[in-house]
Each structure stands twice: as C-alpha cells, then as structure tokens.
Design goal:
Order of helices and strands: HEEHHEHEEH
Helix content: 25-40%
Strand order of the largest sheet: 2-1-3-4-5
Strand content: 15-25%
Number of strands: 5
Largest sheet: 5 strands, mixed
Distance between the termini: 33 Å
Structural class: alpha/beta
Length: 153
C-alpha cells in the first residue's frame, strides 16, 4: 500500500544507491521542511571521507543548516526520511536538532536506536521527542542493503 512518504523515500533510496556506487554503505536521507519541500539530501560518505560520523542522517542535517543559516540549527517542524533505522549517534542528533518526525525504511536489528535496540528519539528523559514512522518501503530499502553486502562477501 502506498504511503505519503513514498516519494521522499524514493529520493532517499536514490541517495543510498549513489553512496553504494562510491563504495559506501547504501543509506540515503532527505530532510523535508515543514511544508514538505526538500531542504537537503545525502548518502553515507564514511568511506569517501574517512569520517566515521559521515552518516547520511548527519550529513543531511549539516547541509540543511548550511542552506538555512547558523540560526537554523533547530530544525523544528522538519521531517527526516532515511532508508535505514538510525543508529545511536544519529538518533541523538535528531533529538538535538529538534526534528519533528523521523520516517525510516528498513529496521536495523543490529544497531537501530529508534525501535530495534533502543528508543533514543522518544526517551522521556530527554528534552525533545521525535515522532516516528518505520517500515516505509522497507523491502526495497532492505534489499538495497542486502544486495550491497551480498556483493562484498
């Protein structure tokens, strides 16, 4: 069944494919402003840059703030769409950036910090909570990752 998030997830999937073409794990992300317009896109760049923090989620936040200006680090009202459930580092960044909503594709049973292992973004002890919707185009998102790692084995 189609979701309102499918078009944005398809953009994120394209970003993931672009990352894979450059040798990075194929995770892609897109940040939408409160009206649903694309603010920024990114794919993983850890291998390209040698930066362990160059996850798609962090890169898309950085790019959005670079576009909007320094005062815009609070990305209130924005929605992050990403192909894989965020890790602990990325989930923490979403809270700190005051993201309103997270939409993700595939669940990550090994490192997911939004539903699978932890629930960082909805932890009541933190000063901000993020609305979450998971499983959008999950099969396609998961297949992108499975195919990538299958080719490397």
């Amino acid at each position: 069944m189609a979701s309102q998030w499918d078009p944005a997830m398809r953009i994120a999937l394209d970003q993931g494919r672009a990352a894979a073409a450059k040798g990075d794990v194929p995770v892609g992300a897109v940040l939408l402003d409160p009206a649903g317009a694309v603010l920024a896109t990114a794919g993983n760049e850890r291998e390209q840059t040698g930066d362990p923090t160059a996850h798609a989620e962090l890169l898309v936040l950085r790019r959005a703030v670079a576009t909007l200006g320094r005062e815009a680090w609070r990305l209130e009202g924005c929605t992050l769409v990403v192909t894989l459930e965020p890790c602990t580092m990325c989930a923490g960044a979403l809270v700190l950036a005051r993201i309103r909503q997270l939409v993700f594709g595939a669940y990550d049973p090994k490192a997911g910090a939004v539903a699978s292992l932890f629930d960082v973004v909805r932890d009541r002890r933190l000063n901000h909570r993020v609305d979450v919707m998971g499983g959008i185009l999950a099969e396609e998102c998961g297949a992108l990752l499975s195919d990538f790692f299958g080719q490397r084995r």
